[in-house]
Amino acid sequence: MVVSRRPAGASPASARPSASSAFDLDPARAPGHVAVIMDGNGRWAQERGLSRSEGHAAGTENIRRVIEHCGERGIGTLTLFAFSTENWKRPRLEVRGLMHLLSRTIEREIRPLHEAGVRLRYVGRLDVLEPAIRRQVQRAVDLTAKNDKMTVCVAFNYGGRADIVDAVRELVAQDIAAEAVTEARIAEHLCTTDLPDPDLIIRTGGEQRLSNFLIWQAAYSEYHFTDTYWPDFGERDIDLALAAYAARDRRYGGLSTDGDD
């Protein structure tokens, strides 16, 4: 786990590596799947005297930049945590604004993503969203289904525990015997069944927790936490996270190569 913090008195530029720092990374040590908890929109807005809705809008404007840079760095799968099952507890107007942003972002970004060969995936409980948004999401998924340059997965109305509960319910509905329930069987029924587990999970905004995000899939993921708010999270921040990941000795729950715990 690495926490990225700016030195006291340092400017944003001086606290980050140069944009070229990740070019020399060994491709074999690059993560295949990066997942991002996009946090800090509200605080970003508050520090600028703006509304939370304006902060969320700024956050959506950053999505294409991050997708493009991850694609340039050879990341095959990028998962973005946009809205959790717990986020319904937020003020009603803020939730309505987030739903509107989801619709507007899909409308604005789907054509450029499709033309770039990006496959769009959606994970989360789609059934509770408004019918018009459900249809919009499904059209975007269907349009890009055969693209193979990169997969961008949007987690909206997603919760890790809910994902596991839904998987278990499917197994029960299929009358699977208790002794036949295995980790592989459960994984087959998670909503990410066609995606690799995340190699690297990044959280922006200074918090250091998973917040119920991919909790099954993240069993052996590496973590990178940064104080940078999501609207400001850019190319240099991505490169810093990738460089930190590449420098680690991944143990997958076992011992390191030199025998230390």
Would you mind describing this structure in some detail?
With 261 residues, the chain is α/β, with parallel strands linked by helices. The chain has 8 helices and 7 strands, in the order E-E-H-H-H-E-H-E-H-E-H-H-E-E-H. Strand 4, helix 5 (131-143) and strand 5 form a beta-alpha-beta unit. Helix 2 packs parallel to helix 4 (92-115) and helix 4 (92-115) packs parallel to helix 5 (131-143). It is globular and about 55 Å long. Mean pLDDT is 88; it is low at 5-22.
CATH topology: Undecaprenyl pyrophosphate synthetase
* Proper CATH architecture: 3-Layer(aba) Sandwich
Q: Radius of gyration in whole Å, from Cα?
A: 19 Å
Strand arrangement in the largest pleated sheet: 1-7-6-2-3-5-4
* Name of the top-level CATH class: Alpha Beta
> Rough shape?
globular
The fraction of residues assigned to DSSP E strands is 15-25%
State the CATH superfamily name.
Answer: Decaprenyl diphosphate synthase-like
Largest sheet entry: 7 strands, parallel
Q: Percent range for helical residues?
A: 25-40%
Query: What structural class do you assign from the helix and strand content?
Result: alpha/beta
Care to count the β-strands?
A: 7
Run of helices and strands: EEHHHEHEHEHHEEH
Q: Give the helix tally.
A: 8
Distance between the termini: 15 Å
Poorly predicted parts: 5-22
Overall structural domain count? 1
pLDDT averaged residue by residue = 88
